[in-house]
Specification:
The chain is of the alpha+beta class and 99 residues long. The protein is 31% helix and 37% strand. It has 2 helices and 4 strands; from the N terminus they run E-H-E-E-H-E. Strands 2-3-1-4 form a 4-stranded antiparallel beta sheet. Strand 2 and strand 3 form a beta hairpin. Helix 1 crosses helix 2.
Length: 99
């Protein structure tokens, strides 16, 4: 499956408890391992980027992630395998430019 056949999805990952930057890095490694395993199985999925949400203390409270995938089920399967929350999944609309 080529990237041209993948759909853009935005994923909200809300954490029940804040985590540290080190824990976020470890979650990123788990995510990468899960992506590699899914692709090895022929699933079309690709991580594009993520925005990190923090509280006033600087702890991570969640992320907004942009993925390209063959379908929503692939996004949810990735989250399950990586041990990451999948609070909400939506198709990505046209982006808006800032100032």
């Amino acid at each position: 499956m080529s990237d041209g056949e993948l759909t853009d999805f935005l994923i909200l990952r809300e954490l029940d408890e804040p985590i540290t930057e080190a824990e976020l890095a470890a979650a990123g490694e788990q995510s990468g391992d899960a992506l590699e395993a899914l692709r090895d199985e022929g699933v079309g999925i690709r991580w594009v980027d993520s925005e990190v949400m923090t509280n006033e203390a600087g702890d991570v409270t969640g992320t907004f992630c942009h993925y390209q995938a063959e379908d929503e089920a692939a996004v949810r399967e990735h989250g399950e395998r990586a041990g990451l929350p999948v609070t909400r999944v939506d198709r990505r609309g046209d982006p808006l430019d800032g100032e």
